Amino acid sequence: MSADAGTAIIGGGIVGLCLALGLAARGHDVLVLDGRDADMRASQGNFGLVWLQGKGAGYAPYGRWSLAAVQEWAGFARRLQDLSGVDLALRQEGGYEFFTDRAEFDAFGQDLHRQAAALGDGFSFELLSHGDLAQRLPGIGQKVVGASFCPLDGHVNPLRLHVALRRACLASGVRLAADTPVTTLRALDRGYEIAGPDRAIRADRVVLCAGLGAATLGPQLGFRAPIRAQRGELLITERVADPLPFLSSTIRQVDEGGLQIGGTKAESDRDSESTDQMAVLARHAVAVWPQLADIRVLRSWAALRVMTPDGYPIYQRAPDRAGAFLVTCHSGVTLAPLHATRLAAWIDDDPAAPDLEAFDERRFALS
């Protein structure tokens, strides 16, 4: 009996769609199985950052992987726009990390020096005192003790990114099956059976990109899949006529004009907002940029990040047989260009593919 798909990708978020696009470009028959609209989706609740500073300060392979990703983002955005007709609103003109606590600022500065030592000339940053910031950004809050700046950092509209990926996949011959949750994975003599409440299919290969769902599905194929949820919360303001003169990891102005304020982290598997965390976000934003005090907040939401024990991605081949893969990370926007190219080559076991052993889930057993 022939398979229903050459490669089945479970999960139609940003990670799964990027990989589908990359595999289709390599000539594969790809079917993406996506869940229900009501599923918790990190792809529809993220901050949209293309971010490098601080990433991999304690783990050089992740720092190098992130550097390669941000360097390839401009070309990736052009490729997606050509395929989809969607402008991703990419702006990659540098970003700030603002600090109101001196000890946190000093510690982050040490992280950046470690990151620079690992990345070499490809990475640069500035550490700015309050006085430096006051000259560069008149109106900065008095409570800000300092900031870091990296010229490679930027952001995109994450909802447009998701739409563009879907359109690009369809234009590239990828088949998308919406409202198709998966509950059971089973290895066959040849290929895999993928089953849900409404249907079962066969595929020669299966790639698990199901976010938090991989914690349940992964062990069915022999993966450990040590994944947990971390809740992040966001505020969305009214549109602001004057352009915000900076981008930071916690405050950004989206292309439609409103501000997005975020940055909370809570170890929780609930995607509901909390008023105390919303107040923390608002106070931080006003401390950084006091002009925001009179801006109206229109709505708020919470979303769940997909976290591994050390916060770095997992790229894993099934331990007992060929043709099954686990792919998970919480920086799907930043890493999108690599997932659509180099990771697809790794799935194919291309000799030119990067060595991704550093992201093998066996590192947790070793540590």
From TrEMBL:
Lineage: Bacteria, Pseudomonadati, Pseudomonadota, Alphaproteobacteria, Rhodobacterales
Gene Ontology CC: cytoplasm
Superkingdom of the source species: Bacteria
Keyword Oxidoreductase: yes
PANTHER family reported in the protein's UniProt record: SARCOSINE DEHYDROGENASE-RELATED (PTHR13847)
InterPro entries reported for this sequence: FAD-dep_OxRdtase, FAD/NAD-bd_sf
Any one GO MF annotation of this record: oxidoreductase activity
Keywords: Oxidoreductase
FAD dependent oxidoreductase domain location: 8-346
Name of the protein this chain belongs to: Glycine/D-amino acid oxidase-like deaminating enzyme
Protein's UniProt keywords contain Oxidoreductase: yes
